[in-house]
Amino acid sequence: MRNKRLLTVIGLLLIGSMLLAACGGGATPAPAAPAATEAPAATEPPAATEAPAAEPTATEEAMAEPTATEEAMAEPTEEVAAEPEATLTAEEQAAVASAAAAEAMAAAEASGKTAIRWFVGLGTGTDPQQIEAQQAVVDAFNASQDQIQLVLEVVPYDAGRDTLATQIASGAGPDIIGPVGWGGSNAFYGQWLDLTQYIEDTGFDTSVFDPALVDSYQTEEGQVGLPFAVFPAATYYIPAMFDEVGLEYPPQNYGDKYMLDGEEVDWNWDTFTEVAKRMTIDVNGFNSTEDGFDPTQIVQVGYSPQWQTHPNYVSSYVAGSADIVDGDAKGSYSVNMPDSWKEAVQWAYDGMYGDQPWMATGPMSGAPEFGNGNLFNTGHAAMAVTPLWYTCCLGDLRDSGTEFQAGILPMGADGVVHGRVDADTFRVWKGTKHPAEAFTVLSYLITDGGDTLLPNYGALPAIPDKQEAFFAKKSEDYPFITPETWEVFKAGLSYPDAPSAEQWQPNWNEAWAREQTFWDLIQNTAPDALDFDAEWQKMIDDLNVIYNK
Amino acid sequence: MFQELNRGTPALPTPRAYRELTPLKRREMREGLLFISPWLIGFLVFTLLPILASLAFSFMNMKITDGILSPPKFVGLDNYIQMAKDPQIWSIGGGTRGSLWITVLFGAISLPVGLMLPLFIALLMNSRHLKGKMAFRSAFYMPYIIPFVAAVFLWGGMLNPESGWINRALVAVGVPRDMTPNWANDVNWVYPTYVIMGIWAIGNAMLIFLAGLQGVPTDLYDAAKVDGANGWHSFWKITFPMISPVIFYNLVLGVVFLFQYFTVPLVVNQGTGRPGGATMFFNLYLYKTFFTFQNMSYGAAMAWLLFFLILVVTIILFRTARHWVYYAGDGKS
Q: Does residue A335 sit in helix, strand or coil?
């Protein structure tokens, strides 16, 4: 009998412990600063066909310059406590960061201040050195006044969208989110606060920005952002390769002509294509236009899109931006991609699989000797058309002793230059309980705080007065870059893609992914196995369904 | 077969029958329920409740990004109607196929391989002429105990078009470099690549087949030999019918596994559907709908479609089983 009672007690204890184990999440992990030994994203360049985060991600940034992480790896750190975090998944690191932020928020509120949470993880800002800079900005802000306590929450980029989505779904969204680009913002369309009232109430001076940039944040939901960082596009090129084949460099002033075979021609996409073909060289030294050229043994391509590998990017550059969504409500949405967009993508496809290729196919650009997608950085591409943030990722090229410069963007068939300007900014979540205080913080981040943040993000300030400092810093990284090249980028600000190539589409995440799939298909499939027209139509049909899901 | 298994399983008594139990029996029952309660509670809270919740979500318009700002609304069968005409699920032809068709297409390659290869190896392992049976059995089973994701990474390295030793070996034996497969990055090679990776995990199926083969009475073979049967006849007329329940078991598991195929495309091609959407298997598309596209209601509807597809296919398999699965001493199933 006694034994039975004992067994019952033991059994109950076991059941209790099992229930506790099942329900409890274990000990709350101690909030910790991101580990110095965190695995560097720099070693994982995006694959060639990867849907690019148009906004510069920590990954891209980390690729160029030695980061604190790399330095930490070079010099063994004594911070043993930080080590275990390196083994956490992105989601686990996000959970740790969120728990730490929640604790800091509670402490701030207990002190009688209004706690404002700043969420980082949708774009750049997750590198250790950037986190340090962001924390410095937070500290400076908190020291500057006694009403608001700003709390920083940094989650890894890989877990950023999921974490934010979960927080928003549970009603526990952050007050400020950013830096975030067009794509990241569109993934959370409808969640951003209209700042108009707060701009008026505080008298915030928006005249410091280019009005066109301010307008680009105007949506049907109001003024949902203010300019902060901008990334105009240009044609990157390697002068030595042009010298080798005796071709002129791309022009560096918008409106200038190009000299091809002794004739002055427009620097348009036809000229660009011809130059790219002549710069595409096989293992025997033949270029793409010559007899005997072997397309299976290309050692250098004329052009690399450098993560602008999405139909919407290519089309925006070549054919010009367009409003691609028709309709105003679920059930009425439809795709409105102009034919010129299809032609632009067909042009790129011919560049990969045509008789005279000038661009890397998917397998080729994904190969290690071609930089796993970062082809221009390996010195195997003569030109790249991509935004300014790509200066993040050219460390290998620089260290190999190869210089690069930038020229103007080619003009489209309509005689107009269709550029791209990527942009990062901060947004306020519509569900914030403290919109006025959040706007106070946002104002600080895009002005005074920007002085510290922008150099660490490697971003060009949207405020023109602050741009010289950015280029001075970049010139330290790339001493061979001429002032003319920086002027090309500045001039590129006059050619934004409006609406953005990453413009809002209903069910943005899925629509963007479907378009990416199309690009991926053509990049990896030769014409004998692909009906381009049918696949394009299929994409359109799919998008029409996705838009109305 | 399953009725057999259920025979003798005690059921909960009715309230009246419970009252008629002796105090000892009642206490035993209470203690039994107490001991099983952690599992029951876990099942109710972490399995049954989410299942029911997902059913409810599938009739709403819940998107996680809408958050609390626009509460979900009841939309009836909208998600199911939308799903019924979603080309990303059903589309058959062309380069970018629907996820369901991708799953079926892959199954047409992987299922036969996944059944026949382990059966073939089990037959070899069962051969009386084989020396060192234990070593071979261990060798074939060993990969199964390696975590699947680790194995996938391993295969990913071996099949890397540039640095993998398989392509290097092909080049070494004279295959032109540009003719070597691009494996998981090639629309035409990606399914064979996945099948090859799947072979790594056939140890378990092989072991089950082996157990089945060892259960076949040897006197049947002796009798067949006396009657002049050759090896093929013995296999087809004796071995196959005798192990047909095991084949059926592996087939059902294989079909269920196929519909839930997820890990390999997620790890090898990062869940992007690369190359060209060829690896957007149904379960992966479902996952992405939930967690990347954040369309919870549509994802829930897809989950229920998956459930019904598996249910229907399994029922069909059970119906066909009565024609080809043989249970000794029980006639056909």
A: strand
B91 touching A (Cβ < 8 Å):
yes
Portion 490-529 of A in contact with B at CB < 8 A: 507, 509-510, 513-514, 516-518, 520-525, 529
- CA dist A97 and B166 (Å) reads 42
CATH of the domain at A354: 3.40.190.10
Query: Does the residue A146 lie in any domain?
Result: yes
List, for chain B, all residue ranges whose pLDDT scores fall below the cut of 70.
1-11, 65-69, 328-333
CA dihedral of residues B115, B191, B312, A538 (deg, nearest 10): -170
* Nearest chain B alpha carbon to A20: B38
Domain count, chain A: 2
Task: Among A44, A538, A547, pick the best mutation site for testing chain B contact (most B Cβ within 10 A).
Answer: A538
Per DSSP, the residues of A496-522 read --SS-TT---TTHHHHHHHHHHHHHHH
- Together in a domain, A502 and A391: yes
Quick: pLDDT tens for A518-546. Answer: 999 999 888 988 999 999 999 999 999 99
Query: What is the torsion angle, in degrees rounded to the nearest 10, for the CA atoms of residue A474, residue A475, residue A477 and residue A479?
Result: 160
- In whole angstroms, give the CA distance from residue A478 to residue A406: 12
Q: Could you tell me if B85 lies within 8 Å of chain A, comparing CB atoms?
A: yes
Does residue A450 sit in the same domain as residue A362?
no
pLDDT tens by residue, A303-320: 999 999 999 999 999 999
Q: For residue A67, is it within any domain?
A: yes
Q: Are residues A269 and A205 in the same domain?
A: no
Q: Which of B82, B95, B273 sits opposite A525 (nearest CB)?
A: B95
| Closest chain A C-alpha to B14 CA, distance in angstroms | 25
0.95 exceeded by pTM: no
Write out the two tokens for B13.
């008594």
Q: Does B42 touch chain A (CB under 8 A)?
A: yes
* Gap between the Cα atoms of B248 and B240, Å rounded: 11
Q: What is the pLDDT of residue A107?
A: 82
Is any Cβ of chain B less than 8 angstroms from the Cβ of A159?
A: no
Last residue of a domain, which of A434, A463, A492?
A463
Residues 49-88 of A with CB under 8 A from B: 49-51
Same domain, A164 and A275: no
- Same-domain status, A170 and A310: no
| Contact status of A541 with chain B (Cβ, < 8 Å) | yes
Do A507 and A378 belong together in one domain? yes
CA distance B281 to chain A (A): 14
How many C-beta neighbours within 10 Å does residue A400 have?
Answer: 10
User: What is the span of the domain harbouring residue A178?
Assistant: 41-230+423-463
> Are A151 and A95 part of one and the same domain?
yes
d(CA A384, CA A375): 9
Number of Cβ within a 10 Å radius of residue A260? 16
B291 touches chain A (CB under 8 A): yes
Check: CB of residue A371 under 8 Å from CB of residue A301.
no
The SS3 of residue A85 is: helix
Residue A22 included in any domain: no
Please report whether residue A341 resides in a domain. yes
CA–CA distance, A537 with A545 (Å, rounded to integer): 13
Instruction: Write the ipTM.
Output: 0.80
Judging contacts by C-beta atoms under 8 Å, the chain A residues touching residue B291 are 162
Q: Which of A431, A463, A495 marks a domain boundary?
A: A463
Q: Which residue of B has its CA nearest to A522?
A: B276
Q: Cα–Cα distance between A427 and A429 in angstroms, integer?
A: 6
Task: Give, in order, the Cα–Cα distances in Å from A521 to each of A362, A363, A536, B88.
Answer: 9, 11, 10, 15
The reply to whether A216 and A281 lie within a common domain is no
Q: Which residues of A touch B66 (CB under 8 A)?
A: 169, 190
